[in-house]
TrEMBL record:
Keywords: Signal. The keyword Signal applies. GO terms for cellular component: extracellular space. The lineage of its organism: Eukaryota, Metazoa, Ecdysozoa, Arthropoda, Crustacea. Pfam families: VOMI. InterPro entries: VOMI, VOMI_sf. SUPFAM superfamilies: Vitelline membrane outer protein-I (VMO-I). This is Vitelline membrane outer layer protein 1 homolog. Residues 1-18 form the signal peptide.
Length: 203
């Protein structure tokens, strides 16, 4: 799956710390749920790129209790020289625990797949449940432990497959769609969707 057409994204440049990013630099998956509000785009320190990620997930709360599954995506950044330069997140949910950091075996993240429970009317939607990160080093995707509900969206794309940056670009940031806490006796879904920003690697 390559970059999606620009006209399917908001028709505005995204400005982060004075740098403007066109919508065509973002990758995303078709089929995510839509509850909540988009957070600000957060980007790795200049000259660094994403090489790993960690998820915050609310575990199964048991029968008759509300589940929200994926609450946060944290990205780890490093320079092309291999120096860790920090972490970035966008909007986050309040619940869950971190399930451990997972890193590309080499290179940087250049694509992803999203595990999603489709909207239903059974009373407890969980929305996004997991993320698989694809790396420039190739091989199997990196998959931190996530929620137990839903299906991977890659097989539902046209053509099927993960969403990937252009060949000369890698992931350098993200923005997330998160539903705020709905309070007791209401259905929380927390993180619903994510768009990853792709940046050019230096020649």
């Amino acid at each position: 799956m390559t970059l999606k057409p620009w006209f399917l994204l908001p028709l505005l440049l995204v400005s982060v710390q004075g740098v403007e990013y066109p919508p065509s630099d973002f990758i995303y998956m078709i089929g995510a749920t839509h509850w909540g509000f988009w957070g600000e785009t957060q980007v790795c320190e200049n000259g660094s790129y994403v090489y790993g990620l960690e998820l915050k997930v609310e575990e199964d709360q048991g029968n008759f209790n509300d589940d929200s599954a994926l609450n946060e995506i944290k990205l780890f950044c490093r320079s092309t020289e291999g120096d860790h330069t920090g972490e970035v997140t966008s909007s986050v949910g309040e619940k869950g625990i971190y399930t451990g950091a997972y890193h590309c075996p080499g290179g940087f993240m250049n694509g992803f797949d999203l595990k999603m429970e489709a909207e239903h009317n059974r009373g407890d939607n969980t929305a996004a449940n997991g993320v698989r990160a694809y790396c420039t080093s190739g091989g199997d995707p990196v998959e931190p432990p996530g929620g137990e509900w839903g299906d991977w969206l890659a097989e539902q794309q046209f053509p099927p497959g993960p969403s990937k940056c252009h060949s000369n670009m890698v992931v350098c940031g993200l923005m997330t769609l998160v539903q705020e806490n709905q309070g007791s006796l209401h259905d929380d879904t927390a993180l619903n969707d994510v768009k990853f920003l792709c940046c050019h690697l230096p020649e």
